[in-house]
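Sequence only, no structure available. Ideas?
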Amino acid sequence: MKKQIASILLLFFMGQAQGGIRQYSADLDSSQWQLANDSRLECTLSHKIPNYGEARFYSKASRKMNMEFELDMLLLPDNYALAEVRSVAPRWRPGVGDHVLAKMKLHKQFTPSLPKKVAWAMLSELEQGMSPTFFYNDWYNEQDKISVGLSTAKFQKAYQKFVGCVGNLLNFSFEDISYTVLNYQSNSDEFTKSSAKRMAMISEYLSLDPDLELVLIDAYSDSYGGRWTNLKLSEKRANKIREYFVANGIDPSRIEASGYGEKRHIASNRTTLGRGKNRRVVIHMEKP
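Reply:
I predicted one. Tokens follow.
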């Protein structure tokens, strides 16, 4: 393994001797790590790389733990390339070997990124005082090589805040609640227990991110109680939820609420279970 690493480094520096190498990284004075987003919806740990761009680790509210890394370049590649991501030991740790973490695709159209496992590995290396560094050939000058390093200076404090933020993220995302079907108790505008829990989730999300572009509310009833009564009951259900969204800061002009009564049944009204399914409100939310 040590021989392989030595061979890779030898080839890299042989290329350096033939051409040039451009190194980008923040020094001790300019290095900054910042918790750019700190909410229960998204956490972002950012690091400016002078004259190159910005490195970002981020995690979003979701049912599953997630993490991603992206390297936001000021100048995107002119064509497809492949970068090697290595964990490089600082000069003050002689004898500590470098090792490969991953390969990263560089595309012309997109900011390059790395998935959860690699992103966490990079954070772990930074926490241990190692510097994740990207090596690739310059796409504008074939004789040049590029080295982009993440500085460990001033990392620890920001990282602790970032980990705390990630641990406090909601365990559901907007996509989990953007299409919701709520059910009601018989002949009532009161939710069933499961639907009340779902509405509480929507309420919690809206308290953090009320910026919705459109909310569609469609209410339906079962076939018991008379058509006119059921139509008015479904309208009452739809308007009650509309008032709820308005109270949570959503622009009333962006909310469309309709009651359809006994129309569009999705189950048989001959059974208790079927009628329970038909007593429903469908909420569809869209963001910009």
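The mean pLDDT is 86.
Hope that gets you unstuck.
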